[in-house]
C-alpha cells in the first residue's frame, strides 16, 4: 500500500515539474492584457503624429490668414490715406493757387486766399477724421506750403531745398505718382529746429504723392504709429512669438506675444530686430504677397509668416516658435503615454488579482486531487465560486463521491470474497487431510472390499460430483478474472472521459480570453472616439476665435470690412475639418460594432464547448454505471462459488459414510484394495490441485483487498 502511494506521489510530482513560469496563468493573463495595451500605445503614437501634422498645418494656415487679414485692414487704411491725398491734389481750389505758374504770394487775390484757406482746411480735416493720418505736409513749386504741424511759415524755398536732396530727386524722377518711405529727413530736420520735442517715433512711415501740371506739388502724410501699434498688438500669438510691421527701408515696429489679450511692444533697448534677418529679405524678394516658411531664430526653429501690405512696400510678419505650435500635440502624446502607463498598471493589477483568484482555486483543487491520488477519497472540493472553476470543482466532487461509493462496494465485496476464499481453503485442507486418512486406511484394508463394492462405487460417484463442482469453482474463478479485466477497462474509459472534460475546460478558458480581448478592443476604440471629439472641440474653439476676430475687425473697419471675406473663408475651412472628424467617428463606431459581433461569435463557441463538456460528463457516468453492473455479476458468481463449496461439504459427508461402510467390510475387500488405493491416490492429487486453486483465489482476494485499502472513504 505504501509503495502504491509513493508511486502516485512521484507521478504527481513529475506532472508538477512540467509547469513553467511562462506557462502559468498569471504570465499568460498579463501577456493577454499587455498586447492590446501595446496596440493602444501604437495607436496613440500614430494619433500624435497625425494630430501634430494637422495642428502644425492649422497653425500655419491660421497664422498666415490672420496676418493677411490684418494686412488687408492696414492696406484699406493706407488706401484711404492715399485717396485723401489725391482728393487734396484734385481740389478745384488747386487751380486758383498752386497750379498758377505766375503766382505771386505777395499779391494774392481774395479768391486765391480763399482757395489756400480751403486747401488748408481740407488738410486739417484729413488729419482730424482719419486715424491713420498723423501729420500732413504740402509744398509746391509756387506759393507757400501748408502743414498740420506746428511748423510755421512753410516757405516756397522749402520745396526748392527739398528737390535738391537725394530723396527729392528720387521722387521727381520716379515714374509713379505715389510712394512710401520710412522717414522724410528734410522735414524731420525742419521740425526738430522748430520744435525740439518733436519725436519721429510718433509715426510709422510716410506716404508721398506728387502732381505735375504747369507746376509741381508734393504732399507728404505721416502714418500714425499709434494706429499701427494697435493693429500689430492685436496679433498676439502667445508668449515667445514676435510680430512686426516693417516699413519700406527697414524701419520696424516689433511686438512680442504675451499671456494678456494684446501683445507688448518691444523697446529699442531690447535690441530685437527682424528686418536684418535673411528670411525677411527672402519674403521681400518673393513675388508672393503672403506666405510662410521655417527658419532658425536664436538657435531655435520658428515659423515665419508674412503678408505684404498692398503696394506700399511695407510688410506685416510674425515669428512663432515651432515648439509652441507642437506643444498641443506634445500634450496629446504625453496624455497618451500617461493613459497607456495607467492602463498597463491597471491591466497588470487586474491580471494579478484574476490570476491569484484562479491560482487559489487551482491550488485548492490540486491539493484535494493530490490527496485523492494518494487514496484519500474523503477530500472535499467545496468552493463558493460560481464560474467555470466552480462547475469543475462540483463536477470533480460528484466524480469522487461516485468513486468513493464504488470503492466502498468493492471493499465490501472483497471482504466477502476473502472470507469465502479462506473458508474454501480451510475446507479443502480438511478434505485433503481426510482423503489422506482414507488413503492410509485403505492401505490397511485388505479384506472385505468386495462386499463394499457398491459403497466404493457410490464413493467414486460422489467424488466425481465433487470434481465437477470443483471445475465449476475453477470456471467461476476464471470468470471473476475476466470481470476484473472488464472493470479495469471501464475504469480506463472513465479516465479518458475526465481527460476530455479537462480539455473542454481549457477550451472554455480560451474562449473567455477571446471575449475579454474583444471587449478591450471595444474600449480602445471608445477612447479613440474621445480623442477625435477633442480635436473637433479644438477646431470649434478656433472657429469661434476667428469669428470673434472677424466681428471686431468688421466693426472697426466699417465699410472697409468687406475685405474680411478671407476670414469667412477660413471659418468655412475649419467647419470642413469638423465634418471630416465626424466621418472618422462614424468609421470608429462601425469598427466597434464589428468587434461586438466578434464577441457574440466567441460566446456561441463557448456555448458549444460547454455542450461537449456535458457530453463528456455523461460518458463518465455511463462508464461508472458499467463498472457497477460488472461488480454485481462478480457478487453473483461469488455466491455460486459459495454454493459449490457447500455441495462439496455435503458430498464429503456422504463420502465419509460410504468409507465407513467400506471400513466395516475392509477385511472382505482385500482383493480390491489395490484398485481402491489407486482411486484414492488420484483423489488425493485432485484435492491437492483444488487446494492450489483455492490458495490462488485466496491470494487474489487478498491482493484486491490491499489495492482497495489504499483508498480512504470514511
What does this structure look like?
- This protein has 714 residues and is α+β, with helices and mostly antiparallel strands.
- The protein has four domains: 25-57 and 328-373; 60-69 and 229-325, Beta-Lactamase (2-Layer Sandwich), CATH 3.30.450; 74-224, Beta-Lactamase; 409-507 and 599-709, Helix Hairpins (Orthogonal Bundle), CATH 1.10.287.
- It is 70% helix and 10% strand.
- It has helices at residues 2-17, 25-89, 93-96, 110-129, 156-163, 166-173, 185-194, 225-233, 278-285, 322-373, 388-444, 453-557, 565-664, 673-709; strands at residues 133-140, 146-147, 178-181, 203-212, 216-224, 242-246, 252-256, 264-265, 290-297, 300-308, 315-321.
- Helix 2 (25-89) packs antiparallel against helix 10 and helix 11 packs parallel to helix 13 (565-664).
- The radius of gyration is 60 Å and the shape is rod-shaped.
- The two termini are 17 Å apart.
- The model has no long low-confidence stretch (mean pLDDT 76).
Amino acid at each position: 500500500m505504501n509503495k502504491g502511494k509513493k508511486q502516485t506521489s512521484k507521478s504527481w510530482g513529475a506532472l508538477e515539474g512540467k509547469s513553467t513560469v511562462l506557462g502559468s496563468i498569471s504570465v499568460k493573463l498579463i501577456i493577454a492584457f499587455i498586447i492590446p495595451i501595446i496596440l493602444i500605445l501604437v495607436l496613440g503614437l500614430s494619433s500624435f503624429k497625425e494630430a501634430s501634422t494637422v495642428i502644425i498645418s492649422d497653425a500655419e494656415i491660421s497664422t498666415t490668414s490672420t496676418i493677411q487679414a490684418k494686412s488687408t485692414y492696414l492696406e484699406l487704411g493706407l488706401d484711404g490715406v492715399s485717396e485723401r491725398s489725391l482728393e487734396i491734389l484734385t481740389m478745384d481750389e488747386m487751380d486758383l493757387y498752386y497750379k498758377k505758374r505766375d503766382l505771386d504770394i505777395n499779391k494774392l487775390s481774395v479768391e486765391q486766399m480763399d482757395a489756400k484757406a480751403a486747401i488748408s482746411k481740407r488738410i486739417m480735416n484729413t488729419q482730424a477724421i482719419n486715424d491713420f493720418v498723423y501729420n500732413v505736409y504740402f509744398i509746391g513749386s509756387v506759393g507757400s506750403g501748408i502743414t498740420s504741424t506746428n511748423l510755421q511759415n512753410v516757405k516756397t524755398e522749402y520745396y526748392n531745398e527739398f528737390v535738391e536732396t537725394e530723396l527729392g530727386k528720387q521722387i521727381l524722377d520716379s515714374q509713379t505718382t505715389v510712394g512710401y518711405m520710412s522717414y522724410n529727413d528734410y522735414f524731420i530736420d525742419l521740425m526738430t529746429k522748430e520744435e525740439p520735442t518733436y519725436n519721429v517715433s510718433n509715426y510709422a512711415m510716410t506716404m508721398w504723392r506728387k502732381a505735375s501740371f504747369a507746376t509741381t506739388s508734393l504732399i507728404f502724410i505721416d502714418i500714425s504709429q499709434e494706429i499701427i501699434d494697435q493693429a500689430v498688438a492685436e496679433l498676439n500669438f502667445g508668449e515667445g512669438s514676435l510680430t512686426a510691421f516693417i516699413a519700406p527701408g527697414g524701419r520696424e515696429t516689433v511686438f512680442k506675444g504675451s499671456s494678456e489679450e494684446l501683445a507688448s511692444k518691444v523697446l529699442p533697448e531690447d535690441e530685437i530686430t527682424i528686418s536684418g534677418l535673411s528670411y525677411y529679405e527672402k519674403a521681400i524678394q518673393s513675388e508672393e504677397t503672403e506666405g510662410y516658411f521655417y527658419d532658425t531664430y536664436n538657435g531655435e526653429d520658428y515659423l515665419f509668416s508674412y503678408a505684404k501690405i498692398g503696394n506700399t512696400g511695407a510688410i506685416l510678419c510674425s515669428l512663432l516658435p515651432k515648439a509652441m505650435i507642437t506643444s498641443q500635440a506634445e500634450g496629446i502624446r504625453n496624455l497618451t503615454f500617461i493613459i497607456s502607463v495607467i492602463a498597463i498598471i491597471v491591466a497588470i493589477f487586474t491580471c494579478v488579482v484574476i490570476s491569484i483568484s484562479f491560482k487559489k482555486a487551482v491550488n485548492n483543487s490540486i491539493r484535494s486531487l493530490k490527496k485523492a491520488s494518494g487514496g484519500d477519497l474523503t477530500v472535499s472540493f467545496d468552493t463558493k465560486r460560481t464560474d467555470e472553476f466552480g462547475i469543475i470543482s462540483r463536477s470533480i466532487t460528484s466524480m469522487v463521491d461516485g468513486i468513493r461509493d464504488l470503492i466502498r462496494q468493492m471493499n465490501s465485496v472483497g471482504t466477502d470474497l476473502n472470507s469465502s476464499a479462506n473458508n474454501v481453503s480451510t475446507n479443502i485442507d480438511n478434505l485433503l487431510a481426510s482423503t489422506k486418512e482414507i488413503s492410509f486406511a485403505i492401505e490397511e484394508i485388505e479384506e472385505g472390499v468386495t462386499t463394499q463394492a457398491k459403497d466404493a462405487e457410490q464413493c467414486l460417484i460422489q467424488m466425481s460430483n465433487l470434481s465437477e463442482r470443483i471445475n465449476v469453482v475453477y470456471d467461476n474463478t476464471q470468470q471473476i478474472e475476466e470481470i476484473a479485466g472488464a472493470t479495469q477497462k471501464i475504469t480506463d474509459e472513465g479516465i479518458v472521459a475526465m481527460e476530455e472534460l479537462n480539455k473542454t475546460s481549457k477550451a472554455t478558458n480560451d474562449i473567455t480570453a477571446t471575449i475579454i480581448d474583444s471587449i478591450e478592443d471595444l474600449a480602445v476604440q471608445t477612447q479613440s472616439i474621445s480623442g477625435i471629439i477633442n480635436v473637433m472641440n479644438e477646431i470649434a474653439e478656433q472657429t469661434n476665435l476667428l469669428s470673434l476676430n472677424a466681428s471686431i475687425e468688421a466693426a472697426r473697419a466699417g465699410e472697409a470690412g468687406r475685405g474680411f471675406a478671407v476670414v469667412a473663408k477660413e471659418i468655412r475651412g475649419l467647419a470642413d475639418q469638423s465634418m471630416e472628424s465626424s466621418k472618422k467617428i462614424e468609421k470608429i463606431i462601425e469598427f466597434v460594432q464589428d468587434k461586438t459581433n466578434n464577441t457574440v461569435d466567441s460566446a456561441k463557441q463557448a456555448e458549444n464547448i460547454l455542450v461537449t463538456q456535458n457530453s463528456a460528463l455523461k460518458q463518465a457516468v455511463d462508464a461508472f454505471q458499467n463498472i457497477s453492473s460488472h461488480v454485481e455479476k462478480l457478487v453473483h458468481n461469488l455466491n455460486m462459488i459459495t454454493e459449490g463449496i457447500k455441495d462439496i461439504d455435503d458430498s464429503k459427508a456422504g463420502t465419509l459414510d460410504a468409507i465407513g461402510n467400506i471400513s466395516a467390510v475392509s477385511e472382505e475387500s482385500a482383493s480390491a484394495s489395490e484398485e481402491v488405493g489407486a482411486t484414492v491416490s488420484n483423489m488425493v492429487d485432485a484435492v491437492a490441485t483444488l487446494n492450489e486453486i483455492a490458495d490462488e483465489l485466496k491470494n487474489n482476494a487478498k491482493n484486491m483487498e490491499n489495492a482497495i485499502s489504499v483508498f480512504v472513504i470514511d
